[in-house]
Specification:
Elements (H helix, E strand, L loop, with lengths): L1 H9 L4 H70 L5 H18 L5 E2 H19 L4 E5 L9 E2 L5 H11 L8 E9 L2 E9 L15 H12 L4 E7 L3 E9 L2
Parallel strand pairs: 2-4
Antiparallel strand pairs: 1-3, 4-5, 5-7, 6-7
């Protein structure tokens, strides 16, 4: 093409001009193919990112689905315990349990829910446990839900810590058992703390079964919040404390 250009314009072939035309054409051609290569790679990356996001969404949904039967299993165990005692509050328990199941069916398919709704679920759960263990039991649920207005969170991300506290802090029937649930919002950072007693177990209370609730929660936090969430667990001779910090969008 460079030679033909020389012939057409000057009717002669000059080596220097021909070489300049050739290198210019070659450079533009390489730039064009590099641009095509970059566009194709960008398209592949977008497809990969979309596939990765879809996979993570599927993983999160699977973990949520694992959480629901575990949650309902504990709730029905409490209902069974109350029925054995012929407790007159069983009807109120069933009503609260119905409200909790409504939350599970209506909200857990959503990407995020208002924090107030998640805290309402926890409050119902605690009310049910108070019915089981008595209003005078050492169960604390404290925080200002007004601060949480217009703030959103992944559904069922807080309740595993509360369940875990009751399972290991109250179900042992120790007279010194306690559960304390505290929450606060500092700017965009949600602080959620759960502390429970750790009674000394007798040999007949030993259970080697590994709980899946906390493992499930850790996986979900890693998938959903990555570096925007921090879960700190601490155990001493008398208590177990879980402190969760989440930076909200």
């Amino acid at each position: 093409m460079a030679v033909l250009k020389d012939i057409r314009t000057d009717n002669i072939i000059l080596f220097d001009d021909t070489f300049d035309y050739f290198t210019s054409f070659l450079g533009l051609t390489l730039l064009f193919y590099l641009l095509l290569y970059y566009v194709n790679k960008l398209d592949d990356f977008n497809k990969y990112k979309k596939l990765r996001d879809e996979l993570n969404t599927a993983k999160v949904q699977l973990l949520r689905n694992q959480m629901q039967p575990h949650f309902l299993y504990n709730a029905f165990n409490s209902l069974y315990s109350l029925s054995l005692k012929k407790n007159e509050d069983v009807s109120e328990y069933i009503l609260k349990l119905s409200g909790m199941m409504r939350y599970l069916t209506d909200n857990t398919e959503l990407g995020k829910v208002p924090i107030g709704k998640e805290l309402d679920l926890i409050e119902k759960y605690i009310d049910i446990e108070k019915l089981r263990f008595g209003e005078d039991s050492a169960i604390e649920f404290r925080g200002d839900k007004v601060l949480m207005v217009d703030k959103f969170i992944e559904p069922l991300i807080l309740i595993p810590l509360v369940e875990n506290a009751f399972k290991h802090g109250f179900y042992t029937n120790s007279k010194d058992a306690f559960v304390s649930v505290l929450f606060d919002l500092n700017g965009k950072q949600l602080h959620f703390s759960v502390k429970n007693s750790v009674p000394k177990k007798q040999h007949f209370q030993e259970n080697n079964r590994k709980g899946k609730g906390l493992d499930n929660l850790k996986q979900r936090l890693n998938l959903l919040y990555k570096k925007n969430a921090d879960l700190a667990l601490h155990r001493d001779s008398n208590s177990f404390t879980a402190k969760l910090k989440i930076t909200l969008d």
